[in-house]
Write the structure tokens for this entry.
Amino acid sequence: FKVQLSQRLLLLMLISTVLGDQPERKTIEASSNYYWGNATASARTEARASAEQELLSKIQVTLNYKFESIVTETNAELDERVMISSQSYTNLLLKGLNYMDSKRFFKWNAFVYIHKDSVAAAFKIRRKKLEDYSELAGSALAEANIGEALRLYYWGYLLGKTYPDQISMRALDGSRKNIDAALGFQTAVKTILHRIAVRPGVCYQDGDVIMVPLFFTYADKPINNLLFSYYSGMGMDYGLVEAGQLELPLYDNPTMAKRKLTLNYEYLYENEMDDASETLILSTLFNTGGFPNVSTVSITFPWLKEDGQQLSSVVEPQTEVVDMLSQVREDINESLRVLSQYKRMGTISILPSGSNTTKTRCWVVLADKQKVHHLLYYSNNTYTDYNSGETFNTLADFKGYKSIWFQENQ
């Protein structure tokens, strides 16, 4: 009996301690330091839910006032931001709510409250996350990691739509300024997309596939990690830019010598959002459009005339070494082996790069680190593509490739 009595006394003391830590209801209602809600219903859960809604509506009034002081959007857009912001903070704030429940005459009364300092702490957490997004995105941009910069700036834009104050944000030029978070991140995404420069190389045929070389820069730097979609002739396909370049396959037969190729740059990266993340939820609530993520490139098929008729692809002279190179031209290592072999045999001579000789049987191999892209025959100040038959007066259209000049010995 003494043990049971001691346990009861201890329990009462603990309850008294807990209740003693809570302010009285009248004190809370009279104070300006709390948000609170009050509701009565037949079920306890129903009473709590109604009380929570009243409390959150009071927070929403505060959000509305804060947003009005920083945004320049229309009333409809402002209302949307306030409503979605309230929803986004709900789960975070509900974890910190305090309840006082009582039952009288089969009715439950729920009184719920939270200190305004707790709400301010939730805003502070969000501000820190936004500023982290800004710093990480700026670092990615400085390295021309455009895909990562777009992802971070866009995710910051989504989260910034729910933050009712300005943040210290690093601008694209490296300077700092206080700005509405949503506006700052939105401007960054639009500016980056606008500044992406793409230049086509010379298309060529690889069996039944057409290969389209593309070169990408941002602020004159080669772009990395840029993802985009395009129509390949067999449906939508994807391309990933690394080191400022890539080659896109096209699977349909062109009917004209020129075509417009549309690239849709990725900036949402929804597949990288956690299924339960707030970013994914916000991306479904806010309108994700309005960003200029489409670029159009004019490409030319040099083996076709303007009316779509085939050009002659025969280049003279055709010799054993050229025939060998044409067979292995996609393999840079094999091409170098062929050239080295015929040089040792005395069949060819390697010429200084950039030679402009009028001698016959002079050839130029254009390649990058991965593969050989073009084999050109040079004679009388004219370059002729061995595979397409197209002629050029200069190598200016082949920027980005290294050249190897050789000449067959008589």
About this structure: Confidence is low (pLDDT under 50) at residues 1-20. The longest helix spans residues 116-142.
